[in-house]
Structure formats: C-alpha cells, structure tokens
Amino acid sequence: MPRRTWVAFVPNFGTPLLVALLCSACLYGQEQRPVVGVAGISHESASFNPAKTRLEDFGDRASGRELEFLKEAELANTTVSGYVAGAKQYGLDLRPLVVAGASPKGPVTDDAFNTLAERILTGLKKMPKLDGVLLALHGAMVVESYPSGDLELVRRVRQTVGAKLPVIVTHDFHANVDPEISNYCDVLITYKENPHIDPKERGVQAAKIMAGMISGKVKPVQAIVKPPMMYNIVFQHTRTPPLKPIVDESRRLEQNPKILAVSVSGGYQYADVPQMGPSVIVVTDNDKDLAQTEAKRLSDMLWATRDQIRLNLPDAAQAVRQAMASDKAPVVLIDMGDNIGGGSSGDSTFLLEELLKQKAQGWVMVIADREAVKTAFEAGIGKTVEMNVGGKTDNLHGRPVLVRGRVKSMHEGKYTETEIRHGGGRYYNMGHTAVIEVEGSTRELPNLLLVTTARSSPNSLHQLISNGVYPTRQKIIVVKGAIAPRAAYEPIAGLMLGVDTPGVTAVNPARFPYKHVRRPLFGLD
Ligand SMILES: [Zn+2]
C-alpha cells in the first residue's frame, strides 16, 4: 500500500503539515524496510512532592516535526538517538509518534496521562503499516490512578497493536519496574549506568533486538526479579562498588549469544508504590530458565551488598565546614535533598544559609527563583541588590535567605553540552539568569549566586561556563542533585561530598511517610 501521507496521521497540535504532501518514499528512500513506531511518555514522579505534573508540563519533542526530531536525536546521546543509530545499522524505518517528557515532579495527573496515551494509541492505529513499537519510557512514572504509569501505557499499547507485534521498552536506570510489564512487552531494557551515559547504547541494543524479532532471527523471553530492598540513591553510582561489580556482570552475561539483554536498575526511592526498588531483567533468546536463573543470581548479588549501603553523610553545616577546611579544590557539595533531577524545587537554601553564616569564600550555587531574577534584571548590571532568595516553592526546602550583592551579568540561560554527560542531552535552558556577586567576594574568590527562572539539573559544566563562571576557579561548588552531576563534575572536582540536606528528595527515607511500598524492605524498615 502506498504510504503517501503518514505524517498526516500523527496526532498534531496545530502545526501545519508542510511535509504531508511529500511521499514517504521520497523522505525515507527504501520502501521495504520494516516500519517501527517510536513513542513515549517519560516521567520520574516523586510521590511526596505535592506539585502534580500536568499536561502543560510535558513537551512533545516529536509531533508535527518528525524529520527534525530524528535529525536532532542523531546529534544527541539519548535512547531515541540510539533507536535512530540502530535503525540505520539494522535497516528499520522509524516513525516517531508522541515522544513526550516532563521534568521530574509530583505524580502525573490522570488527564495528562490519558491525553498523551490516547495520542500515542491513535497514532499507532492510524499507521498503514506497522512492524514493531519502540517505547522510550522512564519507568518511574506514577499517575494519580496508576502506581505504574509505564505499565499502564505498555498495557494499552499491547491492547492496541495485538498480541504478536514486537513491543520493546527502554527504561531509565531509576525505573521502578512492575514485573507485570513482561506480560505486555517482549523486551525491557534499562540503562546500565548512573550517571546515565549509556542511553544511546541501550537504544541501539533495543533497535537491534527489534530487527532480530521482525526478521524472526530471535525469540526473546524475559524474567524480572526484584530483591526486597530499597537501594538508596546515595549508593547508586555504577562506576564504583557496590554496584560496579554487578553492572560489570550484566555486561559479561551479554557476551553469551543466548542472552540478548541484562539490566540492573537501581529504582527510584521517592515513589511510594508497591514496585519501588531495584530490579533485574534478563532477556534471552527463547530460554526462559536461563533468564530466570541469571535474573535471580544478579538479584542475589544486589541483596548481598546490604552492609555496604548504610547511610552516613554530613549535614549542611558539617559539609560547609569540611569544604572550607579542605585543601582540595573545588569541593563539590551535593545538595541531595534538593535533587532537581529527582523532582525537587531547585530553590533549597540550607547550604546557602550555611555558606553565608560560616563566611565561606569562593563558592558558586544556582537557585531557581523567578522573583530574584526579576529584581536583578530590573536593577541592571553593576547595580547593588538586596533580596530574599530561594525557599519560596514550598516549606520543605528552607526559608528565603537575605542576599546582598552586585549584579555581575545577565543571560538568556540557554546552554549546549558537547560531551556525553548524564542523560545524553545536548540543549538545555534554565531560563533568564542573573549572576550575583555576593558580599564577601574577593577578586580571586568570588561568591557567585546564579538565580534562574527555571529549574535545571546540574548535569553540565556549561550551566556555569555559559554564564561566565569558571568552575575550576571556585573553591566550593554546590550542585543540586545526587549521582547525576558526577559525570560532569568528577573530572574537575578535588572532592565530591554528598550532603544529607532536608527536602523532597532527602536521601534519608525516615523523613517520608511511606504507605504503599511492599514491606518489609531493606533500607527502609
Ligand atoms: Zn535516572
């Protein structure tokens, strides 16, 4: 059947369909390649964050601009980048539908989830030819009515495309996998690395298995095993023990030609859902026993690390003292209670308060505070400002702190990452940004506060560099994250220090009233 107007079938939000008149053969060349739909709703939802994630929080990177989307994906290092690279390598014809994502925040509203899911399902139904579906999902999405939004989406997709069509799902390392998902997808793959530097590799892996399934060369079966534990985010660095040997083992197993994919996900502790916690997923070529045996063995390896994952971190006051006394520079203080990538407010002031109180010098910190940006922009470059900064989003992240300083510079707030860093992204935007040189600064050791209009995870040094701040010249750098910032900051840090700050992403689970997790869980009980 001629596929002249496939673009027109894509759910669309008012973008003129300029490309609809071109035939797909002109756009894609080979008519014969298997057609694979690409879709996703990506969200990491923190149950204890009162701010719900609504439809307007989601950007849809694909709809209405499919060709541009594929080209951009080629430049980045995301899962979809891997789908694109894999499709080229293994001869698949990708058709992006809705590929939506929102920054981590509270649970997704039913309205947002149902609307986006319906767009995906409608798009799939309208495709004249469909040989498989690749779903890029985060794996820790909580929806008002569904503890696992990911499971519900995959269930609906399966219902739509029928029992036989290959459906392959990729998840983030922080996925809270509900084992029931294996009833609805043929293959589930999660990132192996945290910081996430392998999404593209996983995307290629998914595309390869997809091509193998379509051609009938492989028949994947999978087993999912979850140890009864919470794996605290503090210990979820996959380049160091205790996780490194387990991740190494997952890679080693993939050398076995009968094994198609082995995933060890760390889980996301801020989701109060039954499936919260780590998972092992082993996908074999039609060998259920092998999948089950190896998944159980790796799950036992996770369980055996219990003694190595007990929490012992300094609080804000101790951490600032330690950073000031250190002869290593820069000291990167990781504000774990305000882990933006994990869904927090980005305006926590516990460390700012200590830096000012202890008269630290040469520090830099980013705080999302729209009002402060407005004040600084209205004052103008070189002008003195005195304003209350941060602690305004909720009552979990400290109180507003009085800051006196001078507006050093003002910026648009867009920056580009050229290296492979956490998540593999390339283009970032933290909104209008003012750099305030806070009192107590010297020429050699300026105290720099960046106020921004949007929250932006500190996954890239360019968040600072693009605003004229040289990270290596600062003595103390505060980053609001957990493990993710390590990919960017470890190469330049003298010392990286996790801080047990309060907040919506506090690493101490005793701070949260869990109700829905399965119990008992090691690390929580
Ligand atoms: Zn993650």
Uncertain runs are: 1-30
Q: Enter the CATH topology name of the largest domain.
A: Rossmann fold
Quaternary: single chain
Radius of gyration from the alpha-carbon trace, in angstroms: 23 Å
Largest sheet entry:
8 strands, mixed
The CATH first-level class of the largest domain comes to Alpha Beta
Strand content: 15-25%
The assigned CATH architecture of the largest domain is: 3-Layer(aba) Sandwich
Total of DSSP H or I helical runs spanning 4+ residues? 14
Write the layout of secondary structure elements.
Layout: H1 6-9, H2 24-28, E1 35-42, E2 59-60, H3 66-75, H4 79-90, E3 93-101, H5 110-126, E4 132-136, H6 149-161, E5 167-171, E6 187-190, H7 199-214, E7 220-225, H8 244-253, E8 259-265, E9 279-285, H9 288-303, H10 316-325, E10 331-335, H11 350-357, E11 363-368, H12 370-379, E12 384-389, E13 401-411, E14 414-416, E15 427-429, E16 433-438, E17 447-452, H13 462-465, E18 476-479, H14 486-489, E19 495-499
Parallel strand pairs: 1-3, 1-4, 4-5, 5-6, 10-18, 10-19, 11-17, 11-18
Antiparallel strand pairs: 2-3, 7-9, 8-9, 12-13, 13-16, 14-15, 16-17
Helix pairs in contact: 3-4, 4-7, 5-6
The chain binds zinc ion.
Descriptive report:
With 525 residues, this protein is of the alpha/beta class. The protein folds into two domains: 276 residues, Response regulator (Rossmann fold, 3-Layer(aba) Sandwich), CATH 3.40.50.2300; 192 residues, no CATH class. Helix content is 26%, strand content 21%. It has 14 helices and 19 strands. The strands form four sheets. Strands 12-13-16-17-11-18-10-19 form an eight-stranded mixed beta sheet. The N terminus is likely disordered. The structure holds zinc ion. The site of zinc ion (ZN) has 4 residues, from loops.
